[in-house]
Amino acid sequence: MLGRIAALCLVISCISALSATALSGPCTRVGQVRTVKSVRYECKKTSGRLRWVKMATSSSATAGGASTTATTTPATTTTTKPAPTDTVVLRTLTNQKRNTTFQIALQEFPEIAQGIVVDAPITFNVLLASLYGLNTVQPEFFRVPFNQKSLYEKATTTFEPFDATVTVSVWRAAAGAGSFTDSLDLTSGFTSVHQEAVPVIIKQNPPPNMMAPMSIEMKLSKSIDLAAGAYVIVLGFEWKNYGVLTIRLWGQESGTNTVGGKGGGAVKNCTYTPTPDAYPSGKAWAGLGVRRWNGEPDSSIGFGPRFSLATAKVTACIVVGEWGNDIFNPGDLDIALVYRG
Predict the structure, then answer these.
(1) pLDDT at position 128
(2) Are residues 104 and 251 in the same domain?
(3) 113-168, pLDDT tens digit by residue?
(4) What's the pTM value of the predicted model, to 2 decimals?
(5) Which of 37-46, 68-77, 90-99 shows the lowest mean pLDDT across its residues?
(6) Is residue 231 situated within a structural domain?
């Protein structure tokens, strides 16, 4: 019996010796860790002695003691905001029908109005207009006689953008399109639907031609609902760039005048093919508000409720430098009512 015990002790001693040899060094400090053939051993003190003890296996341990515990990164959800979509709910003219310009001048007619007819209820929150170009002036323009003013005025379609404010007013006609006479007085027969001053940027259309995009964008502070009926949309322009005399908005002239001048008394040796009225439901008017303008920063602009029929030049009969003697026709302003969702 004693011989068996002695033999067993000898085997255990041999295994310990082999383990120590395989672990490449004695167990000298509690907590030491060694790995042999992917098996981990830890130095522990048992029965008063330091010895290597096989460690329990763990899915978080690998050879060399490096942790393989996976770190889970929460999935990031990116919400892409859809791009705004524009729906044109009403437009007076198509691109192909723009053939003339209506001028907005701080010193004489800073307001322009357009009549529209709504066949079914619509909602819009953006108003668009098409800019063709503008007329710039030098300071001398305001001091010389009328027949010399053209020397200090220049028409251009190339310019740096500048800030402006457009007062947008929407009025409903009580008598429908029957209220669209040559003269308007919004204090009688019209009901105010909405009014607000909208900041805009006056910028050129590249290139300025009949197919150019609409470059004046008026974003309203809220959506406007229009029931079926007749309406007048008034645009009152103000800007502080005093080198700009007028801005010119795209439109279509549709008339048969053959004489020139604002009063229609100047004989013109010009023939042209009249343009059919592309939007017979409405027409454009120029404001008659009272204003004071001298080309200086203290000039004031006044808007009013009264309007007269707006007229635009017949392009084929324009004579440079004879603004007052050109042939003028009534027509329509190119505007679009847009819902941006």
Answers:
(1) 96
(2) yes
(3) 999 999 999 999 999 999 999 999 888 887 888 778 888 888 898 999 999 999 99
(4) 0.72
(5) 68-77
(6) yes
Cis peptide before 207 (omega within 30 of 0): yes
Counted domains in the chain = 2
- The answer to whether the CB of 200 falls within 8 A of the CB of 165 is yes
Please compute the mean of the pLDDT values over residues 250-266 and round it to a whole number.
83
Judged against a pLDDT cut of 50, whether residue 53 lies above it is answered with yes
């003339």: which residue's tokens?
A: 100
* Domain region containing 161: 86-340
| Pair (217, 122) in one structural domain | yes
Same domain? For 92 and 57 the reply is no
The least confident of 95-99, 134-138, 274-278, 284-288 is 95-99
- Across the beta sheet with 122-129, the strand order is 86-91, 335-340, 122-129, 216-226
> Do 110 and 238 belong together in one domain?
yes
Q: Is residue 16 part of a domain?
A: no
Tokens (6 digits) for 118:
């709504």
